Amino acid sequence: MICPDFLEFQDIIKKMRILDDKIVYALNTSLPTESFQTKIDATSACQDLYEQIQKGHSEREKVIKNCIISSADTVKNLKIAKEQKPDDIDLLRNIKAEQRKLRLLQTELSVEEIIKEKTTKLFTEKCRNYFKPSY
Length: 135
Description:
The protein is 78% helix and 0% strand. The protein is mainly alpha-helical and 135 residues long. Helix 4 (42-84) runs antiparallel to helix 5 (89-127). It is rod-shaped and about 75 Å long. The two termini are 32 Å apart. 14% of the residues are buried.
């Protein structure tokens, strides 16, 4: 599970975002210029790219939400343990660290929404003449 180590989590999410990071390149290589329009099927290219984008978005969202749930459960369990040992300094440190991680994960979900909007906008601008997804 990638959730306990936030840096590992970020590395994996970064790798999962490669298509979104290079969306302009992917669109430019998938769509034909006017001179090649007869040789390449732009509709199927856009449809394939759309499916790849949607798959990536749903996979990343699932990973992020699972980590948020996992982290929230850990915070809850640590707080229960804190009630039984109110003077335990290490427990308090662990609670604070886990709460920080939870906030970072929630921020990551917001970042994911922004990336999703940007990618969708670029896709729509380039592929609107060839493929119209049903949202």
